[in-house]
Protein 1
Amino acid sequence: MVGGGGVKVSLEWLKRYVDIKEAPEVLARDLTMFGLNVEEFHSLFPPLKGIVYGKVLDVRKHPKADRLSLCRVDVGGEKILDIICGAQNVREGLGVPVALHGTVLPGGMKIKRTRIRGEVSEGMICSEIELGIGRDAEGIIELDFEEKPGAGIEERLGSSDYIFDIEVTPNRPDQLCHVGVAREIAALYRRPLRMPECMTLETGAEYRLVIENGNDCPRYSAAFIDDVATGPSPGWMQDLLLAAGMKPINNIVDVTNFVLLELGQPLHAFDRDRLAKDMIVVRRAKNGDALVTLDDIERELDGRDLVIADADKPVGLAGVIGGRDSEVTDSTRRILLESAMFNPRLVRQTRQHMKIETEASYRFEREGDIGITVAALERACLLIKEIGAGCPALFHADILADPALVGKRKITMRTRQVNRVMGTHLSARETVSLLERLEIKSEISGRDVIASVPSFRRDIKAEIDLIEEAARVYGYENIGREDQSGCNIFSHISGDDKRIETVCNYLVSRGFAEVITSTFMDPGDPVRMGWLERDPRCNAIRIENPLTEAQSVLRTSLLPGMLNVARRNSLSEREGIKIFEMGKVFIPAAGEAGLPNEEMHITAIFTRSVRPLNWFGKQRSFDYFDMKGELEALLGRLGISQEIVLAGGGEGTHQFVCNWLLDSKLIAEAGVLPSSVARIYDSEHQVFYFDLWIDDLPRAGRDRKRYRQIIPYPAVKRDLCVIAADRVMFADIRNVVKREAKLLEKIWLFDYYRGGHLGEGKRSYTFRLSFRSSKGTLDDSTVDREIGRILTALQRELEVVLREE
Amino acid sequence: MNDDDASRLDIEGFEERSVKAIMEARTPEMLEEQRIRFLGRKGEITEVLRSIVRLSKDERPVVGGRLNELKQRLNALIEERKALLETSDGDEEPFCGDPTLPGRRGWEGGRHVLHRVLADIKEIFFGMGYSLATGPDVELDYYNFEALNFPPDHPSRDTQDTFYINRDILLRTQTSPVQVRYMERHTPPLRIIVPGRVYRNETPDPSHAAEFLQMEGLYIDTDVSLADLKNDVTFFIHSFFGSDAKVRFRPHFFPFTEPSAEVDMSCFACKGEGCSICQKTGWIEIMGSGMVHPHVFRYAGYETDRYTGFAFGMGIDRIAMLKYGIGDIRRFLANDLRFNSQFWTEIWSGVVE
């Protein structure tokens, strides 16, 4: 009946405790809006098709079979049907359900025209069991209503019962039974609740009942049944149990289950004659204790487990499951009926490590109603007596750790606070009547209300819990404020957020597709990527309980995930891959309470064709300078004007990878993946990438740019072609030029050449310099002086010389 | 020109065709060809003029006058066009002979649909006065559960299957831990949204993912009420899904809010009639919400009685699925670019799967 956070209740069963006139769909909607989310409701039995009303015109004996009758049945058509019937209650004039030729019954039987011992039968007159709407197989159904012969009667047959599947949140164990749901319906529609009848049991049974620790078991009550006569329970009880999804077993077990589903209190019946020394001890298990439970599994117990024991040994796992050896059987003569309250945490612990979940554990874990243990026994005893399953003793045993536990909790609810939270203008008197509908009696004290919370509402512990109940009964749909919210709080723009959004949108405009990949990484990825063991990226944080081994660590880089994206978008689907991701990587750190560093990275990869197939130029693959250009432009966009220093990649990285340093701080890694790595990720093409640590860039702040005057004087441009040795990099030359030339505005490299006729180990760079002064138009001699200074410095510092024409 | 046209003297049709042909001529030679075709001695206009005889005497001068006017106009147009073509005669032909050849374009890019949806949602809340806050994905049990009023060993934790790093550290199952983190550092009034990735230890299927994007909202001041919550949430839903959406608040339970409410929106597909998207209920669950529980205030170090506030939380993946009709949540992290690229255009409508 329970499981998946819900309860199944039968409409017919609910009607025992509260009047319900509403149609099932209306009730479902109203309950949902009242906070009992009806996830599904359906008619108890599957709908029948092809069953019609038939009138038995006459009946005679089958000439060759004593037990069969030949009936002529009017089913409305032109022809009166001949039907052979084996039931003893068939007689002339009876209205009966008839399954016509071609109908398939719920059991799968297909009705056909047939011959039985030489006589024709053209249909079937049905019993309850044949239609799957009841347990009666004895006779055919005698319809107690009149219909036109041949009329479809599927809807009038069978049960009017509906099953409601209600989501029950963990705070409301009181709703895990029919009375609990009926109580909500009574509150919803302002109708009286009829509590089930009980038999009064006096206190003071003489029985040896020992509770080791009142904290583990705050209450243990027991009733005693003699002269037990096990057998099947009555039909009405079986019907209701089946409707709520529970299998009937025998009258004793059925009564305990019935009370469970009725009042929500789990009961357990012990065969009293199997309890050693006829006593009950509630205690922690000792190491070495073992118990074969009702599901025939032998379980080893330890000090975490609370058990019900007799003088010698455990006979049940408290609140979870009973023991097999003390189970009620056909030979049981005397019963001890247990109705108790156990510590929810212990029940949860035991069922978790034993890996079983039962109706009882589900309820005990949620802390049921400590006030109901005896009433549940009284109800069970009355039922046992009524159905003749045994003879209840007039006394019960009851140990309660602390009498205060069953008392009503008094809580003050301030009317001002009610209105403040709800946004309403209710008076104290109005709030009292709201709570009273939920059986929470309250009295007005000054401007406020003092509520007495009954024991079945353990969830109501403080004022706010009462306010919630008041709001629910008042109706969320009735809450609203005409004077629109008086909010005067304004947004702050987060610089970090804005920077990230800007970067992403910029990259998109550059033709990058954004991807979002998993936070989880395969622990094999660092090895696949060829990272050295001391690379921090190899030290990934492990999940204790991962979904799969391939998702068992937190990513230390976005690259593996992105390479998988490239792999998944195969060459045949996608000629070029230019993708980026903005996301966190997780690096272990001894930071706050052992939490890792979460670094925001922007990573991009470039592989395969540099642009879509086209007619105007030779197709080529992405190269290093495509990647580098994008990264340079991105940093430019981010306002980074300082010199970026490129250094060799970290130890163990590919020789064609560079670290990008800003003020000696690593901000990016960029280059090409070793082809051995690319191939592991199924790439036959070179894969270029950059990986930018966006958190380490200068903090985003207010935009402090200032407008600069546009210089009205023209620029003077000069081209230089220089020869350098292989060890000299362009960046070295550029740095010297920038330092030496006072009036330099811009520098463009437009030719680069190495080896060949220059000779081994030589390169030539050709670049254009642009000079401009804010003071006036430059004359040639000034520019010549600039050039002279540049050339002298290049030669002195780098042995770079002007190329002879 | 066939007889039917001639008999109706289709002057407008003639005018339209001739003007179009003249304007489309790209060289002086092509222009001359068109002049001969329409206005030449054996051109179409001659034929039209000849057919005037079929008209009544009263009509002839009127029609004749109109045709002469047209002839003059076309001649002027041709001269004008000719002058234009001759001045650019020396230009290099830029079309490679075919202006319909495709232009030079690089790869197209675009945001991921989840971030696109999130950006739209953020924009709405920024407009309402919410600011952005963030927090770590790897979180302390304390912030994810305990400070949010999930007692240890309590069944309410069962509703969120958790990935653990160790006993005290986990992957956040919700963005709500940022509530307490933010409250610890700020004093009300405060009004924030908190987007971020959250994790649930669930076997992925079309409607469950182990990692997804969530967004939390929090508003705390001295007198924030359930009515304010309804206002803000309803405003958001109307802004994002359209103002014809009906919104209902249904009592529910979350440990860190009380009273709590599930927020449902009338199904946009069937307008509340009941269909497969809303599982025949006519309503779609959009988010959870409620009034911040006093215990959470206590954990954050606030005087519990001084403030009231509300919180809400929604799954961005779920909202994107609803908005675009995406049937499988696993699509989002799969990054099949055929999927991703569907959401790059500025206006997009349609159904995936």
Protein 2
Amino acid sequence: MQFNSLSDFIAMGDYGAYVWSSVAIVFGALAWIVVDSVMLKSKTLKAIKQEQERAEKIRQAKQQNSV
Amino acid sequence: MSKHPPQQESHSNIQLSYSSAFKSIVKREFSLAWQKPAQIIQPVVFFLIVVTLFPLGISPSPKTLQLIGPGVIWIAALLSIMLSVEGLFRQDFHEGHIEAWLLSTVPMPLIIIAKLLSAWVISCGMLIVFSPLLAMLMNIAPEVIPALMLSLLIGTPILLFIGAIGNALTVSLNQGGVLLSLIVLPLYIPVLIFATAMLEAASVNMSYVGQMSVLLSLLLLSFVMAPLAIGAALKNTVN
Amino acid sequence: MWKWLHPYAKAEVAYQLCYKLLPYFSWLSVITLAVGSVWGLAFAPADYQQGDSFRIIYFHVPTAILSMGAYTSMAICALIGMVWQIRNAELAVYAIAPVGAVYTFLALVTGAIWGKPMWGAWWVWDARLTSELILLFLYLGVIALYNAFEDRRTGARAASILAIVGVINVPIIHYSVEWWNTLHQGATITKFAKPSISTDMLWPLLLTIAGFMFVLAALTCLRLANQIILNDARRPWVKALVERELSSVSMSKASK
């Protein structure tokens, strides 16, 4: 451990604001892109489902027209 | 009959020789531009207006103008080309020429080069002709004007080639304008850097051969690569 | 080797491979990032010149390196997709691009935050900063171009072409900016002298670099899997998959 106390660690030799803000931004952005990528799956599944239903409706409509 | 060389006789009559295909495309481009002279005039007017904004926005003092002049003229030229390039393949796309090119026996890069070269003469020729006038407006020393024209002569075709890639990629989109600038402007940066560096060297009476050769090599690179990329992009929009 | 690789060009196999690899990449990224960050922030010795502010290096350097690495791998995927007509490679272009853009953004922001105490300014037109900014523009162009098309396939191909054009330009941009910078700025910026970094500083750095690499790999797997099923939406295997996944989601909701 390079720091004697927790307050020393947070102060980062007077550079605390810079170091901790960059840590926060880096992990914030990483969390955002991770969440976005994970959420993408359910979004994609729903989009595919909709697309399939639409295609099915179009197919049925065509069949009815031809009859 | 005797007018045709014997080699062509063996092919089918429809097949064009490469040089006649090249010539016919160039001819068509020029006649189209002749019918719509706005295509030639508007980029030049835009070029003039943008340059006019800088003394108004920054400072009219001759010293400042001399300092920023080459950069301003180059940025204005760059924006003007970016705008004029937007319509490069649009008509061909909507009228189905691109499909015809893809189906013809003439190689696509040749057609594209013919189009680009005529587009360069049409839309950039006037910029180069008018650049001395702008140089005087920006208080640029007369000795620098040949270098300015030379840099535009070498640099504008590069900008046109890169811009044409962007246009070929976005031609099927309804509102490709902003997207085109987003795609194309980052790729313009090296040209801007070396062209203005060339003028900076010229303005302190130094040799600018080095910067000019870099620009020339960029020109060669874009001349070789751009038609390939444009061909692939156009093929993609049609399929 | 081709015989071995070929099945992975099939969409279903590639989809399953993505989810097979995902847990490994995820755990490796969590472990390396956690150990590397804590080590770097708390245990690595302070720099004798920059004090504790140098600890930003553990986030700045990995994101900067991998922003370029991601762009290169994106362009390689694009090239494979264009030359050999392998669709999964085309799809990978758009799977990598957003992650690469985030890394580029982070490299810029951490660079700016680091620059403030060191150079006294948030932004200086340093060669590396400038070319990193241009790299961000290139990423945004690829993403915007992909999204502009109604047809996903056309968008993916257009984005691939742009990625290839971009990767040819990246070294040109980099060297032109570097050369421009030396021309204009001279000695006003003292570039970080890159001395042989001591090993107690280097280890955590290597760990965070590995960590960001695994994050990139994991996210690429996740996003690529989505791209694959989206692209194959009409195929029976995707239909079956969607039924299975959606019903399991609704069942888990019902059981709650």
